[in-house]
Amino acid sequence: MIQVAVHGAEGRMGGHLTALVDEAADCELAGLVTEPDRAVAAGEFHPRLPLVAQNAMGETLPAGCVVIDFSLAPALEALLDACTRLKAPLVMGTTGHSKAQLTALMRHAEDLPVVHAPNFSIGIPTLKMVLQLLAKVLPEDFDAEQVETHHITKLDKPSGTARHLADAWTAVRGGDPVPTHSRRLGGVIGEHAWAFADGEETLVVEHRAHSRRAFLRGVLPAVRFAAEAGPGMYDLGDVLQAVAHG
Q: How far apart are the first and last CA of the chain?
């Protein structure tokens, strides 16, 4: 049985993650973490577990549990400190980190496994692989642009997923960064559309999330992967390839 803690349990995705882990036959929900210096008794947020303050998680959660983090970038430093104390693998869907924070995350992954993905849907890593293929095969005179659309409360612009996809294209294709246009409209869950064109034809590739549960489809496979993995920085592609190869 894999012990799992949800960091950022009261956030937009926290309730979904809590229910996901609670329903998993091979996982035990072992902790729920909220903001620093705050605690909520069992029965108020979750029928069995209390909400633990972030600055107390290192002394409260079970050692070696897998921590899932879908919170906010400013929480990273204290989160990594707690994971180090717990020797806890980390599955992270949080985006919007600074370069210095990403450097700290990479350094942390030298000692403990980290699965970091801006999007835990199945479609996004598939889209990434398609973009990498198109970057190889489309003629040089094809231009590329990306449009990403999310709900009006999403803070980072462009989204972490959009930046991740653009980086994947540029890493193969080279050249200038791909122009990315951001829209924040109503309650749109998440859309990423790419268009490629030369003087003769246009190709469009698009991913749409129909519900927030789409962003959770890769979380449990990532938890199972992280529980067994050695130190290193992994993405959802690594997880899906491990699943495909048994």
A: 19
